[in-house]
Amino acid sequence: MRHVRIHVLGDLYEYKYKMPKDTIKHDILRCIRYHWLRRCLFYKVRFYMEINAGKLKLDLYCRGIKIDPAIHEEKIRKRLRVRGGLGSGVEVILPHNIWVNIPVFEKFVMDSPYELKEEKEEFYIYKNSMRIVRVDVAKTIEFYHKKTSEGNLMREIGIMHGGALAFYLGPRCEFWATGQNCRFCAVGLNVGLIEKEEKSIGDVVEVAREAFREGVADFIHINTGYSSDESCGIKTIIPYVKALKQAVNASIAIQTLPPRDNKWIDFAYEAGADSVSFNFEFWGASAFNAICPGKSLKIGQQRFLDAIKYAVKIFPNGSVAGEIIAGLEPIEETMRAIDFITAAGALPIVCVFRPVKGTLLEHEKSPDPEKLAPIFEYMYRQCNANGVRMNLVDKVSLVIMPIEGRFFAQK
Predict the structure, then answer these.
(1) Would the pLDDT of 171 be above 90?
(2) Rounded to whole angstroms, what are the CA distances from 121 to 221, 232, 344?
(3) Are the C-beta atoms of 285 and 292 separated by less than 8 Å?
(4) N or C, where is the chain less crowded by C-beta within 10 Å?
(5) pLDDT tens, residue by residue, 319-344
(6) Cβ atoms within 10 A of the Cβ of 216, count?
């Protein structure tokens, strides 16, 4: 058998073929190039696709996916819109164990070329009516249907995103009370309505034990909103971190706003937090000020940058992150943010902008994946160049992790 590889449909896919020695190579190549599938069948050519999982993940973030109505809901992990709203899509596992939370509810999904289908108890993604890859769908969560001993639905306390058991802890972000909330965020639409605002330590620990007993959680992710106290919310989450560490002894990542005093970063580490991230969102001043008015007025971008530089002195390599959003400012600005973060010895976490339904930016266009792709190659190369460790966690479905940037660096 001979093999020839050519690119079709952009750079997402590659076709390979196998053919008998007496088959005319020229005809086979024409057949592949123009998708003359009937002629392929005549030559008894067997096709399969090799997917670039990283680029497909980006494309799915930007275009979303339709779900075949024939798929029974109980076969797909329940889609819940909680916290900032990014996790409301369908959880799918691409080749190479790449997890992705694909938008399904947003308006731009109506124009998506992608569709999720089930055939003979296996799931496939189709693009423009052509089957392109077999995928796994994240299994349903048993604890979502259970209640805590205090009588609260567990899914209103914690939720799964990929392998992360995620909790929003503390009161609703105070920026929402003054209209200074980040324009892309849905926390104020969810916390206290779809999910419980007040979560007891007992409930949180109980949900964590259940998630790890069920085998669906690999690590814990905690985030909180703006609080006007000097710790900016860290003081609130420290008791939860201590209790969770004692109960399940899992890796705990916290995402918070930078405290006024760096001592709270020390306290978080001493309490058992394994990693910390500060989400300053944008590098350019115009985007930061316009889209994150509360952060701009109450904290200032420089405080985020200073907190990152301090935290890398306390936490191990690869355990401090700066989170930014791609798709709402020029990619050159996003790359400058990556330069700063990696030069500081921290991990850049680049979130693809999603115009989440109900937010102030819901009518914005979803980004063009081809324009964003260079960001992720750059992110990967800069982490390598600065010696930033990239492999502490996997099964992350809401962002393209730096280690996944390797797919964009492939030539």
Answers:
(1) no
(2) 32, 48, 48
(3) no
(4) C
(5) 999 999 999 999 999 999 999 999 99
(6) 20
Residue 320 near residue 269 (C-beta atoms within 8 A) = no
Residue 388 reports pLDDT greater than 90 = yes
Checking if the pLDDT of 77 tops 80, the result is no
Give the pLDDT band of residue 76 (cuts 50, 70, 90).
Answer: confident
DSSP strand pairing (164-168 vs 159-161): antiparallel
Rounded Cα–Cα distance for residues 123 and 164 (Å): 23
Contact 252, 222 (CB under 8 A): yes
Residue of 275, 210, 200, 203 whose CA lies nearest to 248: 210
Query: Are the C-beta atoms of residues 361 and 401 closer than 8 Å to each other?
Result: no
In degrees and rounded to multiples of 5, residue 199 shows phi and psi of -120, 120
Output phi, psi for 130, to 5 deg: -110, 130
With beta carbons less than 8 A apart as the criterion, state whether 360 and 395 touch.
Answer: no
pTM of this prediction? Answer: 0.87
**SS3 per residue for the chain:** CCCCCEEECCCCEEEEEECCCCCCHHHHHHHHHCCCHHHHHHCCCEEEEEECHHHHHHHHHHHCCEECCCCCHHHCCCCCCCCCCHHHCEEEEEHHHEEEEECCCCHHHHHCCEEEEEECCEEEEEECCEEEEEEEECCCCHHHHCECCCCCEHHHCCEEECCEEEEECCCCCHHHHCCCCCCCCCHHHHECCCECCCCCHHHHHHHHHHHHHHCCCCEEEEECCCCCCCCCCHHHHHHHHHHHHHHHCCCEEEEECCCCCCHHHHHHHHHCCCEEEEEEECCCHHHHHHHCHHHHHHCCHHHHHHHHHHHCCCCCCCCEEEEEEECCCCHHHHHHHHHHHHHCCCEEEEEECCCCCCCCCCCCCCCCHHHHHHHHHHHHHHHHHCCCCCCCCCCCCCCECHHHHHHHHCC
Cβ–Cβ < 8 Å for 370, 344: no
